[in-house]
Automatic annotation (TrEMBL):
<comment type="similarity">
    <text>Belongs to the thymidylate kinase family.</text>
</comment>
<dbReference type="GO" id="GO:0006235">
    <property type="term" value="P:dTTP biosynthetic process"/>
</dbReference>
<protein>
    <recommendedName>
        <fullName>Thymidylate kinase</fullName>
        <ecNumber>2.7.4.9</ecNumber>
    </recommendedName>
</protein>
<dbReference type="GO" id="GO:0004550">
    <property type="term" value="F:nucleoside diphosphate kinase activity"/>
</dbReference>
<dbReference type="InterPro" id="IPR039430">
    <property type="entry name" value="Thymidylate_kin-like_dom"/>
</dbReference>
<dbReference type="GO" id="GO:0005524">
    <property type="term" value="F:ATP binding"/>
</dbReference>
<keyword id="KW-0418">Kinase</keyword>
<keyword id="KW-0808">Transferase</keyword>
<dbReference type="GO" id="GO:0005634">
    <property type="term" value="C:nucleus"/>
</dbReference>
<dbReference type="GO" id="GO:0005829">
    <property type="term" value="C:cytosol"/>
</dbReference>
<dbReference type="Pfam" id="PF02223">
    <property type="entry name" value="Thymidylate_kin"/>
</dbReference>
<keyword id="KW-0547">Nucleotide-binding</keyword>
<keyword id="KW-0545">Nucleotide biosynthesis</keyword>
<dbReference type="InterPro" id="IPR027417">
    <property type="entry name" value="P-loop_NTPase"/>
</dbReference>
<dbReference type="GO" id="GO:0006227">
    <property type="term" value="P:dUDP biosynthetic process"/>
</dbReference>
<dbReference type="InterPro" id="IPR018095">
    <property type="entry name" value="Thymidylate_kin_CS"/>
</dbReference>
<dbReference type="InterPro" id="IPR018094">
    <property type="entry name" value="Thymidylate_kinase"/>
</dbReference>
Amino acid sequence: MSRGAFIVIEGLDRSGKTTQTAALYEQLKEVGKVAKLLKFPDRTTAIGKMIDAYLRSQSDLDDRAIHLLFSANRWELASEIEKDLKEGINILCDRYAFSGIAFSASKGLPYEWCRAPDISLPSPDLVLFLDISPEKAKERGGYGEERYEKEEMQKKVREIFKRIGEEMNVATAGAKWVVIDAGRDCEDVAKDVWAHAEGLIEGTSQPITRLWDTSE
């Protein structure tokens, strides 16, 4: 295979994204595959630290400003993602551009405007969307600790994610979007995640595509 695979795990807050991304990473290591684990927002960068303060409600920013910061945070790592993929490294990513669109559009910003800053980012080969009802997520530990973890907000976010997934699967290029029921036991969800990701762990011969780029 000519390059590594790019797999993104998305979902509502408390859907188990971080747990499942880490579990998949460990499975890849166990079978001897080279992989790198990423998480957005990357709170370690200068931009990421501003985002972190905002998410913890320690600062306030205009909705458009925070959206652009989230996008800039992804662009900070875009060239590194491409470089790693070309070197045969599989990339596993906890959240990506789709979260940025879903959360900002849920606050009332225009959908197309929300998508625009992320056009031409490296496109994942597979997006696994962990679907859970906000009511079920609310039962899980830590819910409500960050700014967006409110039930009504999560319902809106879920609807936008549904729209993104439908559009991604209709598009001729870009990621395959798979919905996984995340309201079940962690082990059952992990089995589903592995079943969908396993076919990509050897890498892919497909060229790297770019999100929503219609110029090709």
